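Notes from the 1:1 (GR / supervisor)

We went over the backlog. Supervisor wanted to see one worked example end to end before approving the batch request, so GR pasted a single chain during the call. The sequence is below; no edits were made to it. Supervisor asked that the structure be written out right there so they could see what the output format looks like.
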Amino acid sequence: MNNKAIGKIAIAGIIIVIVVIAALGIYFAMYYQAPPPEESVLIMGTTDKVEVNLDPAEAYDYFGWEIIQSTGCGLVTIRPGSDAGPEDILPSLATDWDVSDDGLVWTFHLRHGVKFEDGTEFNATHVWYTFERAKTLSVPEGPFVGIGIYTKDGECIIKNVTVVDKYTVKFYLNFPFTPFLALMAAPCCYIVNPNYAPMNATVNYVEGNARASYPMDLGPYRLTKWSRVGGLDQEMILEANPNYWNATGGYPKTKKIIIKFYSDSTSLRLAIESGEIDIAFRQLSAADINSLRQNPNLKVWEGTGAFIQYLVFQTKPEMYPLNITEVRRAIAAAINRTLLTETVFQGQMVPLYSMIPNGMMGHIDAFKALGDANYTYTREVLAKYGYNEANKLHLDLYYETSGHYPQSPDQAQAIKQSLEASGVIEVSLHGLEWAQYREQRKEETMPLMIYGWYPDYVDPDNYVYPFLHSSGGSWLHYHYNNTQMDALIEQARSTTNATLRLELYKQIQELMVEDCPIVPLFQGTAFAVTKPDVKGVYLDITQSWRHWLLYKESS
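Structure output shown during the call:
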């Protein structure tokens, strides 16, 4: 071979090497995200708090689920920023799945090589253990009972869970459940570590021992600090989990998240304005949000609202006359939703006339049949029971004072104002800190109370069963029970006929107006405020707050 030929081969070889290196560079740039620097930290502020604990078998509150999502992992997850439709459900601990033709058997094929904190490999027995434990515990006010996954009375969703082999697990259902895959993405279905989650007891806060205070460790973060003073949360620290299965994908994007708890919205606003925190999320007042929009040093994020707020009547006979459906309808008719949404929330919320949110499949404006501030109807009905300007119906309205819901004291004042404008109702307001509020709900002492809801999974069933079914609604302790309602809900959640489902939800909402045990008030929009360099905020219909996507943009 002559020198010229050798030279051509050498040049060709160099070109090939350059092309390969360039291709690899493009590949890594597109698909590999280098882990964030060791010192990457974000500080978040909130007025929220853990309601009970961080155990998926019992936790049934927004903030508890927020931390469960960060420290745990489910079989599937929802694509961030999506509408949470069937096409938006993504693999997580399960890589793929299939369902039988009759919709009664779901088979999940599990991801290989996922490790618990102690190095044990995750497998199908851990899925079985998680659901068997939840079934054994059947916490009355927990999500498994509230959603109807397992119930002692009535027909539950899951019949049993079986291990096929190390990486295959089957769920057998009692009836076809259309949103089953979305349900599997809910934090209550996140897998627990048997070493930290005993079969016969829930896991609660342990002073000075964050690791013993939660039963998961397959998620993007570990909870390394959880401090409380007098039962009130003070600070939490989430640190990157080195065993997280998706760590090679660059998650979590920030190694450490510090969560600071504030007593009220004013303190939270001052913290974000002063730069004490990088993120403020739940709950800033409407006025604060509008004001902070004008601050060039901050960014206000606004997202889809699937949060709803509603009034609950205690309907047991001892609460006469609230046990009378006609009286409850008369009270509901006097509520002025426009006053509530335009004055308290400055237009950031919208009136709601059904427990099923605006824009969701099956929604109808059912409560418009009673009207807003329909004082003529209120006075006519209450007159039949002896109530008038000289003998007013007295109501005790309760609300929480801890910042768990947006501007609860202001809400209560607006509701009082609209009810008393009827001329035949007088209202006494009672504010309670969240822990006491929850306890009074359980003790059934509050005749009328303000409550809110964030979806477990995006489906109308989740805005109906947990409230109006005699089994699901038991967590509210408000004694509503209607066998016709139960039958409609059970049929709606089990049919696969879309047209029939729509008709059933129409009947459910109309019957709800007739019985009026709960009155929908408004539908909220999600807001967060951050420093301008904070990225990765997703405020979508799931209402999930994803710590592991947050990061500071490099300057």
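Supervisor's comment: The mean pLDDT is 92.
Batch request approved.
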